[in-house]
Amino acid sequence: MSHDLLQALAIFAAGLAAGTINTVVGSGTLITFPTLLAFGYPPVLANVSNNVGLVPGVASGVHGYRAELAGQRPRVIRLGSASLLGGLVGAILLLVLPAGAFKEIVPALIGIALAMILVQPRLAKFVAARQRARGGQPPETAGDGLGAPAVQAGGPVLWVLVFLSGVYGGYFGAAQGVLLIGLMGVALTDTMQRINAVKNVLAGLVNGVAALVFLVATHIDWGAAGLIACGAVLGGQLGARIGRRLPPWGLRLVIICVGVVALVKLLT
Asked: Is residue 198 a contact partner of residue 21, using CB atoms and an 8 Å limit?
């Protein structure tokens, strides 16, 4: 088997894993980005191509969670505006700042993402306990006057925090899903599955607007992006259908191992 074919299969497999992980938790970038680095892609090109490639996978995950999105339009519109603006700012920062700056900061970004993955179980327990204490159901306070219950969209503090997570996501993106679930889980009263469905939409908006900026303003390796996209679309459906059954510790272990290898490679 030729080296090029093996490389293509490895990138496709990374996209498949990332699509699954992004739908269930987030942090799929910690699989695909290091994979591209391992095959010699420059950091900025790898980041941009990875972002574009993951967009179809996120859309696939959103479609898989469409039932959990029912009745959440006001929440998605409000928080989605924060994600769109944040993703736009983050993507512009990636292109405006020198490529050397991104290369220097990538180890720190990967380290932060790995730290978030490590604390995710404790954060998830905290959020789940908070949801149980609140009843874990959509609030039925002030309705829309037509008999439909109101859905929390969060206050200005949550909007700003979602915007900042969008800036991070547009610039790099790894573990933005963990950030979003944590923020919404603390601020909103709802089931975790419905919060996860909104997380997929918000992450998709960040990746999507960043991808549009990259399409217009910079070079993309379409071969790598296409392989990641094909794998991620399948992974998005896999994550939506059976991802809830996958052991969380197994997903975290894969992410951490790949991330640590990438961190060592960048620092040596």
From this structure: no
